[in-house]
Specification:
alpha+beta, Phage tail proteins - horseshoe like beta roll fold, Elongation Factor Tu (Ef-tu), domain 3, 4 domains, 14-stranded mixed β-sheet, three-stranded mixed β-sheet, globular
Length: 419
């Protein structure tokens, strides 16, 4: 079979198999669709395969929930670094439709590490730098096929006795208290590896070297039909979500908040006022111009409308560390809210060398009538919708030998200052 790309979205399905009772079964001919999900706000990957079964394969195995499914896809001409390969556990069988000659059903999939996490409990004390604790927990309790890449070392430290938590619950508790500069640390699985990093670090890696630039247009130009590289960069569909909700943001403490810390050890009480408009410039963002905030400075806000109390108790009987709530609690609350709000969903031709956490550039035209003979490229571009975005989630959909990606992308700033 030729290993050349004829059209953007071409894919080579190298393996879809089920391992049950020590035997591996090739089911590529039975699968109608495969979908794989990865998300920087999700610890593990998930997915499903849709099977058309005319030989009662599901009952001959039978599927009981302990089988492993292996998928392996590759964009033609891509090498090993561009392969999407993953092993999952069967998590369930859903939407089963039967008739006299065949049945169609969906097999839901989840990472091997998720099953390990669900049956493991930890009752142990951990103390030290947050990234070192997370590495130790991952290596001892979760590590399976993939390793953990720590993209930056933390300044934060903590001490915790895990109260019979699962590994991922313990990791998430520590992640929420982790920081180097920006306290927007995430722990997630992509199709390449597990990662521990801050959103700020992902942006730092990507803004100077974006993964690619994508162009949205209602109709494809003639040259697109012939140029595969141009096809890969075309946005097929775009679905904006809610960009902002002022009342929700105010109620969540995004614009401003008051963190009250009560130190039982030192018998001290402090108020820590957070102003997101000012803090925005202290954290690297996708358009680091200093005037790129997504809300105006005159936005009505008062810190006391969102008050949170955190109690400290440390240094009394052991080496328990100061949790330093004032360094991360309010800041993380605003940064994580910001990262979850300004989203677009775009559909693009699939390729297997991408993973979540990449920075991309979107060029989106203005939705307005204009004189195309006199307008410049900048005049035709929406300066607020266009610009740098972080890929926060991907759904890889493979059907009829076509790979389509649905990218959820986020921006935390504008490339043009608000008036």
């Amino acid at each position: 079979m030729s290993d050349s790309i004829q059209q953007a979205g071409d894919v080579k399905i190298e393996e879809i198999s089920i391992t049950a009772n020590g035997k591996k079964y090739d089911i590529r001919n039975l699968v109608l669709e495969t979908s794989i999900y990865e998300d920087i706000f999700s610890n593990v990957m998930t997915g499903y395969i849709v099977v058309r079964d005319s030989a009662s394969f599901i009952t001959q195995l039978p599927l009981a929930g302990i089988e492993q499914v292996t998928v392996k896809f590759r964009t033609p001409q891509f090498t090993n670094s561009g392969v999407l390969q993953k092993q999952f556990y069967v998590n369930g069988v859903e939407e089963r439709i039967l008739d006299n000659t065949q049945q169609i059903y969906s097999i839901s999939l989840i990472s091997l590490e998720a099953l390990t996490d669900n049956i493991t409990r930890i009752s142990k004390k951990f103390s030290g730098k947050t990234h070192e604790i997370i590495q130790a927990v991952f290596d001892k309790y979760l590590k399976d096929k993939k390793g953990l890449q720590i993209l930056e070392e933390h300044l934060s430290s903590t001490s915790v006795v895990s109260p019979y938590w699962s590994p991922l619950k313990l990791i998430n508790w520590i992640v929420a208290r982790s920081y180097k500069n920006a306290p927007n640390v995430v722990f997630y699985e992509s199709n390449k590896s597990f990662y521990l990093t801050s959103i700020e670090h992902l942006i730092r890696q990507g803004v100077n070297n974006p993964y690619d630039t994508f162009q949205y247009s209602a109709t494809a130009a003639t040259e697109e039909a012939l140029n595969v590289s141009v096809q890969f960069r075309r946005i097929l569909n775009i679905s904006p979500s809610t960009f902002f909700d002022v009342f929700q943001a105010q109620d969540f403490g995004y614009y401003a908040s008051n963190l009250i810390t009560h130190d039982i050890t030192l018998k001290q009480y402090h108020e820590n006022f957070h102003n997101q408009f000012e803090y925005h410039n202290k954290v690297l963002n996708l358009h680091d111009t200093g005037k790129s905030q997504t809300f105006p400075q005159k936005m009505p806000r008062k810190p006391d409308m969102f008050r949170r109390v955190r109690t400290k108790q440390y240094g009394m009987f052991d080496e328990t560390k100061d949790p330093l709530f004032e360094k991360w609690a309010a800041q993380r609350n605003s940064l994580m809210y910001e990262a979850s709000q300004f989203h677009l969903m775009i559909e693009v031709p699939g390729r297997t060398d991408i993973e979540v956490g990449k920075v991309i550039v979107l060029n989106i035209p203005k939705s307005t009538e204009r004189d195309l003979n006199q307008a410049t490229g900048r005049d035709l571009t929406d300066q607020y919708l266009s610009g740098n975005y972080l890929v926060t989630a991907i759904r890889h959909s493979i059907a009829t030998n076509k790979h389509t990606m649905y990218l959820e992308v986020m921006k935390d700033s504008y490339q043009k200052e608000l008036p």
